[in-house]
Amino acid sequence: MRLPRFMTVRNVDPHHLHRYLLPHEEDAVVIRRHPALLLRYIAEFIAGLIVAGVLSGLVSQGAVLAVIWALWFAVLGRLVFKVYEWSDEFFAVTGVRVMLVHGLFTRKVDMMPLSKITDLTVDRSIIGRMLGYGTVVLESAGQDQALSKVEYVPEPEGVYLQISAVAFGSGDD
User: Fold this and answer.
1) How far from 135 is each of 52, 153, 167, CA to CA, in Å?
2) pTM (two decimals)
3) 117 neighbors 138 (Cβ within 8 angstroms)
4) Counting CB atoms within 10 angstroms of each CB, which of 35, 48, 126, 156 has the fewest?
């Protein structure tokens, strides 16, 4: 199962992925999380635009109108920030570990060694099934790991198979 082109991160800038890789590591799977992650912020933007438009028709005072539209521009700014944040994060699987690199102001790398993975599960809601995303749950024996769940994974069954092939072997040996 191949991942959609817009979700597969190729030609990743060496400053992004490769700064987190060990010298002997190569990326096996590098993906961007599903854009459905942004639906909440898009809905807030549209609802805010409708509310601002309706209130603008009801209010005639300039100061109140300025506040209404300033609040709407704040919602717009949040949407722009979330889109940029989404475009700058990625989920990667190497021959050694699984990692999620995210955050704009404070960069965070959550990872789990493949050797610690004892169980791999895919969860998909009805909306996730319709839109093509799900949650990959990585379980390990013993202590809690920094990376145990990755939400909004595109085509999670394909990612599951790719992680399984890297972690447990492809069976072609």
Assistant:
1) 35, 6, 18
2) 0.78
3) yes
4) 126
Question: Which band of pLDDT confidence, cut at 50, 70 and 90, is reported for residue 93?
Answer: confident
Alpha carbons 172 and 97: distance in angstroms, whole number: 21
Instruction: Transcribe 16-33 into DSSP letters.
Output: TTGGGS-TT--EEEEEPP
Q: How many whole angstroms separate alpha carbon 65 and alpha carbon 154?
A: 41
Among positive and negative, which fits the CA dihedral 113, 133, 165, 107?
negative
Give residue-wise pLDDT tens across range 33-54.
Answer: 999 999 999 999 999 999 999 9
CA distance 12 to 18: 8
Residue-wise burial string across 128-144, b where 16 or more C-beta atoms lie within 10 A, e elsewhere: beebbbbbbbbebeeee
Selected from 2.30.29, 3.40.630, 2.60.120, 3.30.450, the CATH number assigned to the domain covering 25-33+89-168 reads 2.30.29
Count of C-beta atoms within a 10 Å radius of residue 4: 13
For 148, list phi and psi in degrees, rounded to 5. Answer: -125, -20
